[in-house]
Amino acid sequence: MKSARRSQRSSLVQAFLVLIGLVWLTPVAGLLVSSLRSPRDTATAGWWTALAHPGHLTAANYTALLGNAGITRALWNTVLITLPATFAVVAIAALAGYAFAWLDFPGRDRLFLLVVALLVVPVQVGLLPVAKLFGQLGLFGTVPGVVLFHVAYGLPFAVFLLRNYFAEIPKEMLEAARMDGGSEWRIFHRLVLPLARPALASLAVFQFLWVWNDMLVALLFADSSAQPLTVELQSQIRQFGSNIDVLAPGAFLSLIVPLVVFFAFQRHFVQGVMAGSVK
After folding, report:
1. Same domain for 40 and 170?
2. pTM to 2 decimals?
3. How many domains does the chain have?
4. pLDDT tens, 18-63?
5. Pair (51, 89) in one structural domain
């Protein structure tokens, strides 16, 4: 009897979660259908009406998207910004996290507290001072300038997450590796990094999603030749407003890439967040 009730309760929970998932994916489905419709059909009826006539859907909008120089340049800029910013944050935070967790050096705890304190500093606080600094260095309006800003503001959380994860590695394992003659770099590269794969994957997902979807930083620090897809889409909406045949596929492309990345690393993402959240 208890087993039947437990099974029924589990089925209800699963049905509810499926319903929530369908509701969450409805806007994505609507955007996908809109990106495959002609501007005339989009202007005359809602996207759901296309489900009754799937033959009217066409990939011509994506052909127009690839022919739009502004969109393709912005998409390339997004890749040039997101990948280096993600890789740099993960690499630097992994080295710093290992140092804070297992290396003994003067001021280690105080320096880590400073890193934790930086977590509460809003991005908006540093926009104008960093913009002035980048202007003096010749980085304002460039892709490297946007990348550096994302790296700087992504590191405090990244170091905090990885330090907590590395600190959970058994001390005896590291001491045994040192007794066998392993250097700190060899221990970090051959032992710690493979064990920290879930945390590294979760951090990469966090950073990738934040940078890919960012518009505030890019709107201020990137000029017309360096602006990413989010800024370009916003600019085209403001300038034209009716070019749905370019905006819909562009918006769907901007949306689907983070979704693919998240679902590809979902298992590691959950493991890393749960393991690195507490010590």
Report:
1. no
2. 0.82
3. 2
4. 888 888 888 888 888 888 887 777 777 777 777 777 777 877 788 8
5. no
